[in-house]
From TrEMBL:
Stretch forming the signal peptide: none
PANTHER family the record matches: DHBP SYNTHASE RIBB-LIKE ALPHA/BETA DOMAIN-CONTAINING PROTEIN, THREONYLCARBAMOYL-AMP SYNTHASE
Name of this protein: Threonylcarbamoyl-AMP synthase
Transmembrane segments: none
């Protein structure tokens, strides 16, 4: 049975963030709100957790997970980024964007694009997520909480608790509807900005 955490949207309780972080370190898969849809997440090195997320969403091995980071210091250990790209990303973050970049050796091989050796990273603009990442001290491997055969992601914590009670370990509910529009995806792996998916983030700055 999943633990249900009702947290304040602007001042998330530190004790709750510590409890969730400890569960992630112990191998948990969680459902949590972001600035762009609810997401499923686990630690980067949690291979079993990745498999559980794939099972919940019925994903194949070609699905690309996103690494959700606390700040640029953390992001910089995971991807290769030059000054021009750094400035472009910094001007748009934190926000509802996923950026595809060449990965460093810090990223497990199973998370990389098999041919390009790239990975998606993001810096969310959501108080609860940022508090959790600060407590955890490492990125979360994440995937939008879109269930099989459904057109839109789940948006309410109580509904997620009800439907995924036996397949996730924890649900964080900040009392907000975080929407159904996924992130805007921008690929910088070839140097320039290529918009892969138009989503919640404003694309005009990258066009």
């Amino acid at each position: 049975m999943a633990k249900y955490f009702d947290v304040h949207p602007e001042n998330p309780q530190p004790r709750t963030m510590t409890t969730v972080a400890e569960s992630l370190r112990a191998g948990a898969v969680i459902a949590y709100p972001t600035d762009s849809c609810y997401a499923l997440g686990c630690r980067m090195g949690n291979s079993e957790g990745l498999d559980r997320i794939r099972t919940i969403r019925r994903l194949d091995d070609r699905h690309h997970f996103t690494l959700v980071c606390q700040d640029f210091a953390q992001l910089g250990r995971l991807v290769q980024i030059d000054n021009t790209v750094f400035r472009a990303i910094r001007s748009a973050t934190p926000g509802s964007y996923t950026f595809i970049l060449p990965a460093t050796k810090e990223v497990p091989r199973r998370l990389l694009h098999p041919k390009k050796k790239t990975v998606g990273v993001r810096l969310p603009d959501h108080v609860v997520v940022r508090a959790l990442l600060a407590e955890l001290g490492e990125p979360l491997v994440s995937s939008t909480l879109l269930l099989p055969d459904e057109e839109e992601p789940l948006t309410q914590g109580w509904e997620i608790q009800d439907r995924l009670d036996h397949v996730v370990d924890a649900v964080i509910d900040s009392g907000e509807d975080c929407g159904t529009e996924p992130t805007t995806v921008v690929d910088f792996s070839e140097g320039g900005a290529e918009i892969v998916r138009r989503g919640a983030g404003d694309v005009s700055r990258f066009e």
